[in-house]
Every structure is written in structure tokens, then in C-alpha cells.
Predict the structure of Bgt-50863.
Amino acid sequence: MILHRDISENNIILTGSDVSKDWRGFLIDLDLAVLLSDDKAQRKTQTMTGTMEFMALELLSGSYEKTGAIVNHSYRHDLESFFYVLLWLSMSRGWEKGKEQNRDYLSKWFTGTAKEIFEFKNTQMKESNIEEDVLNKFSPKFYGLRRLAKEFWRIIFLTNGTFFIGSYKDNNALYNSTMAAFDEEIQMMTV
């Protein structure tokens, strides 16, 4: 398994279906990626990496808290970053030319100290805020992805009904739930 450690909108390439029948998209910029099977690479997972606006909350909190605890970059952090890319694109793209919205809102994802960014994003990701403060900001073109985004949010942030930003021990359960949510959404789009 590979940890990318810098999932961002600029590191995801989507291809049209006419380009390849096997590949619909891929990740680039693997200079921070590590193989989990590599013992030396395990030490690298303790270094905070990533693009600020797409960085997982646990990594952000570990960058400014002086608790002495080391946050190892995990598979969950890459998925959370991918979730932020989905939100980012859905809020920033798909507007009529000259009618773009959410620039001030999205700038809070990368402007300020790590603590300020963490506190803003952490508040926005809470269940009481996710619908109104985040999903309702989707552009008309991406508004249909709100259901998927809400389910993806639930998979990443809810553990037994409680908001959770830590890493799971079972990556397969997280992966399988995420893939099932995307497969279901794709199926609904093609019907």
C-alpha cells in the first residue's frame, strides 16, 4: 500500500473515457509518497506533509499541539484529503463565468496559522455545520454530488455516531465503505 501524503486538486488527473478504457484518473506528484511495507519509510510518515487546504485535521492538529504525540500519516489522512478535494472542486468550480463564489470561505482553508486553519475546518466538518455551511455551497453543476459528499463525510468522520479525526486500525473497512459509496453514486448517475 502506498501513502501519497499530498493529495490535492493539482495532483489528481482525470481522463475522459475516450482516452483509456482502463484508467479514468490517476495521482501524480509522488515525491512525498511512501510504501507502507518499507520500514525506513515508516519514519517518514511522522513528518507533516501535504497541501494545507487539503490536509487532514489530525495532521493539522499535530502540527501545532505540543503534546509530544507523533501523528503518523495514514491511509485515512489521504482519504480525508481526497474528501477535501471533492468539496473544494464542488464549491469553487461549476459557476457561470463571473459569478464564482466561495473564494473568501475557501481561503480560510489555507490562510492563517495551522491552528486557525484547523479550528475553522474542524468546526465546518461537525455534523451541525456540514450541511448548511459546506454542502449548501456546492455550485449548481456539482449540487447533485451533495449526497455522495455527505456519505463520504459520514464514512471519514463518524465512528459509532461520534465525530472522530483519528486513524482507524482497519484500513480495509474504510476503503470498502468509501468505494461502495462512490460505486452507488456512479450507479445512480448512470440510471
